Write a sequence for this structure.
C-alpha cells in the first residue's frame, strides 16, 4: 500500500504552549534493551536464546500503523504475511510453526502488557493491537518458548508505552490508496516520577481504520481503544490497570481459482454471492500487581478477564447444509475468558549465585458456539448472506493449570546455565445442545498433559561476545476451531486430533558491534503428531494428525539495537 499523505502533531495537554522537539539520541547507557519475553529480565545480548527487540518508535516511523507486518518482517525466523483480508487476520509463522493457520495465529504465544492475546487452546489474534501506543515488541524463538506452555514456535511480547512527564497529546493520520484511512489520538502523562507513593502514570489511545480494499467485497473498518493506568502504592509496590477494546467489521472476498484470477484479479464472485463477512467485538481488562518483597525477592500477580463476540458468514452452498449433521454456513460465537498468573522471583546463592523464578498460571475460556444456515428460501430460490435456521448449538469449555520453574546459575564469571520446567495441563469439554433426528449428541471431552523442560548454557568469550547452546520440548494442543469440524462434512467434534510435541536444539552466537548486535543461530526441530490441514472448502477447514514429520533449519540473522 502506498501512503500518499501523512500528518502527525504532538501537543502538550491543557493550555500549555505548542512545542515540537526532535528525537533525542540515546546515550551509551541506553543502548542495551532489556528483554522481558523471558520470565527473568536480562539483556538481549545475555539471553541464551534467539531474541529480537523492535522499538515502537521505529515501527511508527513512516508507516501506516495498521498491521504488525509493517515492521516485524525483518525479524529472523518470523514470517508475517498480510493477507490483505481483514476477515482472516495476519498469518504468522515462526520457524515453520503457525504456517497451517487459515486465520488468526497458531503455534505462537502472544502477550500484550502481560495479558495473553492467545486463548488457552493456543488460538491467538492480532486485531486488538494498537501500534500507536506500542513501546516495544520482543520476539523469542526456540527452546525457551516452551516455558510459556501451549506455544511451540515462540513468543511475541508486546509492551505498550508508560506515561511520562510532561503530559502530551498526539494526533496522527494516514491516507492511502483504495480508500484506506487511519486516524487516531493518544494522550500520555504522569504525576510524579514514579518512585513515590501516589505517583500516577497513564497512556490512553484510540484509533479508527477504514478501507474499501483492493478487491471487490474487501472493505473493512476497525475501532480500537487502549488505556493503561499505573499507580505507585508505596515505595515497594505498583498497581497497573490495563484496558483494551476492538470493534471490527470486515468483508471477506474469498479466494480465486487460476482462471478467475486471469480474468479479473479484483473480482470476488463468491463474496458477492454469499455476502461473506465477519464482525468482531472484544473487550478485556487486566490488573497487574508488582511488589519488591525484599532486596532478594519480587512478587508479580497478573489478573485479567475479557469477552469476545464473533459472527462469520461463509460461502457454503445450501445443498450441503440440507444434511441433518451439517452445522450451517454462519458461525455465531461468544467467548468469555479469564486468568491469573502469580510469579515469585528470588535472587540468592547456592554455592554459586542463582536466581529462581517460580509461578502458577491458570486460564479458562467458555464458548457458546452456534451455527445457522446462511440462506432463506424465497420462492424456492436460496437468498444468501442472511441468518437462517439454527444448525448447531454447543457450549465449549477449555482451561489449563500450569506450574512452572526457571533458574539461572552463574557457574563462573564467564559461564552461566539456565534451566526450567513447566507442567502443562489442558482440558477441553463440549456439551452439545442441538440433538435432532439424524444429528446425534456430539458432546465430548479431552485432556492433554505434558512436561516441558528447557535448558541452556552460555559462555561469555568477551564482554561483547557470547556463545550459547539450548534445548527444549514444545507442546501444541488442537484449538477449539480445529476440533470443531471433521472431514467430509461429518458431524461432531474431531476428538481424534492429538497434540503435537517437538524437541528443539539450538546453538548460537551474539556479538555486539558498536550500537548493533550481530547474531547467528543454527537449530533443529523434530516434531511428533504434527496437526495438518485435512480438507478446506467454502471457508471451512478440517484437520488431521498424519505421520510423524521431521524438520530442521538454520538462520543467520542480523539485528541492530539503537
Amino acid at each position: 500500500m502506498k501512503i500518499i499523505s501523512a500528518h502527525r502533531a504532538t501537543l502538550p495537554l491543557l493550555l500549555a504552549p505548542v512545542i515540537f522537539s526532535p528525537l533525542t539520541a540515546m546515550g551509551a547507557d541506553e543502548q542495551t534493551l532489556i528483554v522481558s519475553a523471558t520470565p527473568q529480565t536480562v539483556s538481549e545480548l545475555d539471553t541464551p536464546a534467539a531474541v529480537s527487540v523492535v522499538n515502537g518508535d521505529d515501527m511508527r516511523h513512516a508507516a501506516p500503523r495498521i498491521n504488525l507486518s509493517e515492521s516485524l518482517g525483518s525479524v529472523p525466523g518470523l514470517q508475517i504475511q498480510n493477507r490483505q483480508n481483514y476477515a482472516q487476520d495476519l498469518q504468522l509463522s515462526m520457524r515453520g510453526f503457525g504456517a497451517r493457520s487459515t486465520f488468526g495465529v497458531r503455534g505462537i504465544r502472544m502477550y500484550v502488557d502481560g495479558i495473553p492475546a492467545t486463548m488457552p487452546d493456543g488460538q491467538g489474534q492480532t486485531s486488538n493491537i494498537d501500534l500507536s501506543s506500542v513501546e516495544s515488541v520482543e520476539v523469542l524463538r526456540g527452546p525457551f518458548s516452551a516455558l510459556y506452555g501451549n506455544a511451540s514456535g515462540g513468543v511475541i511480547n508486546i509492551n505498550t508505552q508508560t506515561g511520562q512527564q510532561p503530559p502530551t497529546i498526539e494526533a496522527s493520520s494516514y491516507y492511502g490508496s483504495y480508500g484506506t484511512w487511519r486516524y487516531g489520538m493518544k494522550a500520555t502523562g504522569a504525576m510524579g516520577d514514579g518512585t513515590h507513593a501516589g505517583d500516577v502514570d497513564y497512556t490512553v489511545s484510540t484509533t479508527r481504520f477504514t478501507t474499501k480494499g483492493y478487491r471487490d467485497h474487501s472493505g473493512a473498518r476497525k475501532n480500537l481503544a487502549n488505556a493503561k493506568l499505573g499507580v505507585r502504592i508505596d515505595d515497594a509496590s505498583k498497581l497497573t490497570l490495563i484496558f483494551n477494546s476492538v470493534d471490527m467489521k470486515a468483508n471477506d472476498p474469498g479466494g480465486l481459482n487460476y482462471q478467475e484470477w486471469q480474468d479479473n484479479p479484483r473480482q470476488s464472485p463468491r463474496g458477492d454471492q454469499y455476502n461473506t463477512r465477519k464482525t468482531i467485538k472484544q473487550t478485556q481488562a487486566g490488573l497487574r500487581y508488582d511488589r519488591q518483597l525484599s532486596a532478594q525477592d519480587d512478587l508479580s500477580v497478573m489478573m485479567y478477564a475479557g469477552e469476545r463476540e464473533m459472527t462469520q458468514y461463509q460461502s457454503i452452498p445450501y445443498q450441503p447444509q440440507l444434511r441433518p449433521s451439517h452445522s450451517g454456513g454462519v458461525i455465531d460465537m461468544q467467548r468469555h475468558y479469564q486468568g491469573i498468573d502469580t510469579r515469585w522471583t528470588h535472587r540468592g546463592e547456592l554455592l554459586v549465585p542463582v536466581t529462581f523464578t517460580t509461578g502458577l498460571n491458570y486460564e479458562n475460556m467458555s464458548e457458546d458456539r452456534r451455527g445457522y444456515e446462511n440462506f432463506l428460501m424465497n420462492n424456492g430460490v436460496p437468498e444468501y448472506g442472511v441468518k437462517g435456521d439454527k444448525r448447531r448449538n454447543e457450549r465449549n469449555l477449555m482451561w489449563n493449570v500450569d506450574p512452572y520453574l526457571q533458574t539461572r546459575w552463574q557457574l563462573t564469571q564467564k559461564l552461566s546455565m539456565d534451566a526450567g520446567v513447566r507442567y502443562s495441563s489442558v482440558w477441553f469439554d463440549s456439551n452439545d445442545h442441538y440433538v435432532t433426528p439424524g444429528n446425534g449428541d456430539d458432546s465430548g471431552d479431552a485432556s492433554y498433559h505434558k512436561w516441558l523442560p528447557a535448558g541452556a548454557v552460555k559462555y561469555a568469550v568477551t564482554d561483547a561476545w557470547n556463545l550459547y547452546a539450548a534445548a527444549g520440548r514444545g507442546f501444541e494442543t488442537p484449538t477449539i476451531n480445529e476440533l470443531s469440524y471433521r472431514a467430509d462434512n461429518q458431524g461432531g467434534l474431531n476428538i481424534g486430533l492429538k497434540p503435537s510435541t517437538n524437541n528443539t536444539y539450538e546453538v548460537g552466537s551474539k556479538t555486539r558491534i558498536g550500537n548493533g548486535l550481530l547474531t547467528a543461530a543454527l537449530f533443529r526441530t523434530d516434531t511428533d503428531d504434527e496437526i495438518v490441514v485435512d480438507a478446506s472448502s467454502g471457508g471451512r477447514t478440517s484437520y488431521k494428525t498424519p505421520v510423524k514429520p521431521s524438520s530442521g533449519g538454520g538462520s543467520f540473522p542480523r539485528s541492530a539495537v539503537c
